[in-house]
Specification:
alpha+beta, hpI Integrase, Chain A, three-stranded antiparallel β-sheet, DNA polymerase, domain 1, single chain
Length: 406
């Protein structure tokens, strides 16, 4: 950065500069040098101010219109849109300011402000700095972020799943760690523990929770940057779901008939309705239809109910099923018991089983989509004019096809 002497030298040697402006700059340079030699205001009451007329200021090059020097203090001058001059500077973080529509008055006010005792301001600033510098633990900040920023805009079940993920894989690692102490290497090593165990989905879930929390901390002024910005997460092939085999289906049904446990009842019901496990708690049944509130909805939108006709197979198995017995059982508890009946499957695979069997017996694709809660297709004809969801007679005719030997 150029010092004042060199800056003046270059300006004076600018080709084409008028003699009047050159003379004014020379006088300005001498005045600045003279003021720099004056004693510090703490040592003497004598002060010196460089004063120019409005005419001189208007002719001054823009670079030097913005400077005002009082003893060893250099202030910046600007003219606002309201035609008010502001003379300001900051010393050790303490602001000094003088304002007026008259430049000389603004300078005088600035000098008065410069001489004011600002010990109270400095004290308040230091107290604020000490408060903000207190160590904020990641776990405390994460819980506050999750409950304040996320919870009001997500469903209760989604919030609960986030809390479960936090307790299972996040809380212990970050225990006692200040948020400012986190660095990319530490976080990468943490993610690598899941990768090395081939828990690729868990690694991604942890990343998807921790990273936006830290990003919020950046916006909140807690940290300067998100240490997870460059974290590498594993790539893996997402499984789309696999229906159970006819043999596995037969084994499940036989288990229900022999010993109708809560879990066997719930799993058979899922297999022959295509419901998501989180929808079981909302199930209502009458003579021919099953009604449930769809789980796939955004918070703030109206609840959407699905109606699925009871198939001949399910009707034969209903004497073994008591809906109220498993409606109050937690979804995670039911999921843990899938392995009691077949290995390598999840409850969502039973939804795939229902849709697959519907297609195998020849039920219309659009009808199956309605029962599954999917969009039929993107055409106006399917969305607006068919109204298949209101055609109960047609749906009952189609579900009659869902009848085969197990």
């Amino acid at each position: 950065m150029l010092d004042e002497k060199e800056a003046f030298s270059r300006m004076i040697n600018t080709p084409g500069m008028s003699s009047a402006v050159m003379e004014m700059l020379m006088n300005f340079s001498k005045a600045v040098i003279a003021s720099a030699k004056e004693p510090n205001p703490s040592q003497t009451q004598k002060t010196s101010v460089c004063v120019f007329t409005q005419k001189e200021i208007s002719k001054m090059p823009p670079k030097f219109k913005k400077l005002f020097k009082y003893n060893n203090v250099i202030a910046h001058v600007r003219l606002t849109d309201r035609k008010v001059y502001e003379v300001r500077c900051s010393i050790d973080g303490v602001p000094y300011l003088g304002c007026s529509k008259d430049l000389d008055t603004a300078k005088a006010k600035f000098i008065l402000d410069l001489k004011k005792d600002k010990s109270d301001f400095i004290k308040r600033k230091n107290e604020k700095k000490q408060t903000s510098s207190k160590e904020i633990m990641f776990n405390d900040y994460f819980i506050r972020w999750l409950t304040t920023v996320k919870k009001p805009y997500i469903k209760e079940t989604t919030f609960k799943s986030y809390m479960d993920q936090y307790k299972a894989g996040i809380q212990k690692f970050f225990e006692g760690k200040p948020i400012k102490s986190l660095d990319a290497f530490t976080l990468q090593e943490y993610i690598n523990t899941f990768t090395n165990s081939e828990k690729f989905r868990t690694a991604k879930k942890v990343y998807n929770l921790v990273s936006p929390c830290l990003e919020y901390a950046v916006a909140d002024g807690i940290i300067d940057r998100n240490p997870m910005a460059k974290i590498v997460i594993p790539k893996y092939e997402t499984k789309s779901g696999c229906p159970i085999s006819p043999e596995e289906e037969r084994r499940l049904v036989n288990a229900l008939r022999e010993k109708p446990t809560i879990y066997a009842q719930a799993l058979v019901f899922l297999t022959y309705t295509g419901l998501r496990i989180g929808e079981l708690a909302t199930v209502e049944v009458d003579d021919a239809w099953i009604t449930a509130v769809t789980e796939k909805k955004r918070k703030g939108l109206n609840e959407k109910k699905r109606r699925i006709p009871i198939s001949p197979i399910l009707k034969r198995l209903m004497p073994y099923i008591e809906i109220e017995t498993f409606k109050s059982v937690r979804a995670t508890t039911i999921s843990r018991h899938v392995s009691d009946y077949f290995k390598g499957h999840h409850t969502h695979d039973l939804r795939h089983t229902f849709i697959t069997r519907c297609q195998e017996v020849g039920i219309r694709r659009e009808i199956v989509s309605i029962w599954a809660g999917h969009n039929t297709d993107n055409s106006i004809t399917s969305k607006v004019y068919t109204h298949l969801d209101q055609n109960e007679k047609l749906q009952l005719e189609e579900i009659a096809k869902f009848d085969y030997e197990i």
